[in-house]
Amino acid sequence: xxxxxxxxxxxxxxxxxxxxxxxxxxxxxxxxxxxxxxxxxxxxxxxxxxxxxxxxxxxxxxxxxxxxxxxxxxxxxxxxxxxxxxxxxxxxxxxxxxxxxxxxxxxxxxxxxxxxxxxxxxxxxxxxxxxxxxxxxxxxxxxxxxxxxxxxxxxxxxxxxxxxxxxxxxxxxxxxxxxxxxxxxxxxxxxxxxxxxxxxxxxxxxxxxxxxxxxxxxxxxxxxxxxxxxxxxxxxxxxxxxxxxxxxxxxxxxxxxxxxxxxxxxxxxxxxxxxxxxxxxxxxxxxxxxxxxxxxxxxxxxxxxxxxxxxxxxxxxxxxxxxxxxxxxxxxxxxxxxxxxxxxxxxxxxxxxxxxxxxxxxxxxxxxxxxxxxxxxxxxxxxxxxxxxxxxxxxxxxxxxxx
Length: 403
Ligand code: ZN
Hints:
Blueprint: H1 2-24, E1 27-33, H2 40-52, E2 57-63, E3 83-86, H3 95-106, E4 110-114, H4 125-131, E5 146-150, E6 153-157, E7 170-176, E8 190-196, E9 209-216, E10 228-237, E11 240-245, H5 255-259, H6 261-276, H7 304-311, H8 321-332, H9 337-352, H10 358-371, H11 377-383, H12 390-401
Parallel strand pairs: 1-2, 1-3, 3-4, 4-11
Antiparallel strand pairs: 5-6, 7-8, 7-9, 9-10, 10-11
Helix pairs in contact: 7-8, 9-10, 10-12, 11-12
The structure holds zinc ion.
């Protein structure tokens, strides 16, 4: 009996220790939401999932009173957290909460400003210093300059005018402007972002701010400024670090802007930098290039193995998920002969697979036409006898033989 009792005690102690460890894992993160002109009920759980996917954060969502409610009851203990994510655009907080938040950041707390959080609190001086740039809320020249790139020059523009605009939602190219920052180190210089609002004409104090990435607001796409507008920014405030992403307009379930592997990765890296000043996360295999958007509906990284396991089932009408990450990866390997050859071998395997779909083979043949080598020529030649693939095979061969 005694032995049995001891065993139970040991098991209980161990399981307590394990669960305690689990609770301690990750930087404690507070996501504040509850009022927004956006679908915060959709976006906040997605932000939590994206951060926790890294294994670096454990996040909780705190919901403020509704519009017009008693804000005195919203009184978070910021000192319990390493990171605060703002997914909020609504009523002013209490003076006491504002002071506590300013102290948290001044003393080294990390902050993520997400999308419409930069619309919030137009009259709160310190908050606007933390966001660097903001929009709407009757912001104009009294709030600070417009800051953007024009002809690859950083411009601080004090001209009069309202702050904040965006054109029609669309996919757009994001350009990395500072390539040696921990957040952007190793990212492609240009990558295509999933359908989103391109925030433009933001203005604010812009103190202690670096613009890491921009996107060109083309007037041809509707409502554009013809400037390269800030997309990702870092700001320091006292000892605190703030990462500001203007991207991620949420639809139900997140939508293409939040499913974009570029949005997810930059948010994860920006959040880590805000906490520690450095980034330990690897650039994921499926990070998009300029060639195409990569969407992760489940927010998990698509691995090379996974992409090649699924590409053979490719049905053009259903999903481009796996093809787009293979395409992006191929473009990023351009010039790397050994890297391309190892991809080519995997592609040839799919092409030879009797169970792979015709659609998948057509698409892979198209890719092989520019990056293939002598390795795939005999396999492609065999396909000239295949009525369904004859055209694609001939096209690929003609391109490969003029290489
Ligand atoms: Zn929006």
